[in-house]
Amino acid sequence: MNLKPLPIADEKLGLAVLKRLIRERSLLAALAMMHEHVGDTFQITLPGFQPAVLVGPQVNRTVLVSDRAQFLWRNEKDPVAKLLRQGILVQDGAAHDEVRQVMDPVLQRPSLLPHLPGMVHTTDKIIAQWPPDGVVDMLVEMRRLALLILMEAAFGVNMWPDLDRMWTPILKTIKYISPGLWILWPAMPRPGYQKALQQMDTYLFGLIAKRRSEIKEWQAAQSSDLLTTLILAGFDDDLIRDQLLTMLIAGHDTSTASLTWTLYLLAQHPEHMASAKAEVDAVLGDEPPGEAHLNSFEFLDMAFKEALRLYPPIHVGNRIAASDLGVAGYEVKAGTRVMYSIYLAHRDKKHWENPEAFCPHRFDKHTHGRSSQPPLTYVPFGGGPRNCIGAIFAQIEARIVLARILQKVDLHLVPGQKIRPAMGATLEPEPGVKMVISRR
Ligand code: HEM
Question: Residue 371's pLDDT is what?
Fold first, then answer.
């Protein structure tokens, strides 16, 4: 096959993109410009950073399904591989598949249902701490909530007593793997993280040791949590630490962003907020949300899906080309960093009407079936056999948490805030989302 070199920006466009990058301080806007002017496949040509960027359902199929063995997850140069070591997120081939097989059942619906009352209880405790008629930063609150829920539901660990102590180490750990200068200079020294990373390890190894000492009781109680499951599967402490840290970060930072964005977008659109509340009241009355209600939050679910479309917490999937490849007729050399952009695919005019607008009803299966869209156009959880292992967890958690919050409080955005999506480890609202809370 005759492969063409990857398209790049010409000098004029390159300059315009650079100007936009500097003016708006937004890599997203710069990438959107490249997508608009160069096409669905292009290469960035910064010194030291020359990834192939791929956009759309066809290339998603290549990376996630048909040629997936050619796209490696592990990149030794990325801090995420240094941090997570043998964690499921940075492994390839058999080493990945073995871990995934052990962990998958724990994150399926039947294993999660017993945790719904706990999710409601934790949400209630967080809401109870909000000052009546006061202001909270929803990004901080959703992080606290997502952490507590993940630790309880996935690991069987009550994190309340450790939350304050572990807050800074967790934020530092996330910063360590977030995009930064290291992308251009992989060998750059990164002082200032050692203490936080050490505190994370001490915490996690402590949890593992405690669970090992109580394993008979947990086994007798037939606990299907991840920590017990990994111990019973015979994993050693280091391998368990790697999976726990992976799940702790991947499982709460994403939920933090998606819950915050959903509340932000609803608060920005009072008509949609009113529909969501009316639905929650009609479905729940005075009852707490639970298993019986999970499939009844149609509007809330559409709003959550739409928030994931506009602000996908994982806005890009990173890979390394395992060998010289052809992608959509273009040549991708072995070792090239490949990024499939979820953010750009979700805002592509070719596939979405009025893509920049928040329209939950575009996910209404009764009126707006998306059947005309090619598969893998909407990929907030990735796709193919290696899609997000926590997708069911995240969707159940979102319904329970959002329904409970809307049932209990009214939320309004503090006026005059300048909020923009920032590329951390996830796509987060920066600098946070201040909201005025009043009890309903
Ligand atoms: C709204 C919430 C979430 C979003 C949007 C999300 C998104 C994603 C995406 C897009 C991927 C694939 C990335 C790629 O192809 O490069 C992924 C993978 C993954 N996610 Fe999630 N995620 C969410 C919640 C969770 C939760 C709750 C957990 C854990 C309980 C989790 C754990 C993981 C792991 C371990 C992987 C790697 C799976 C593998 O390689 O086999 N995620 N996630």
Answer: 61
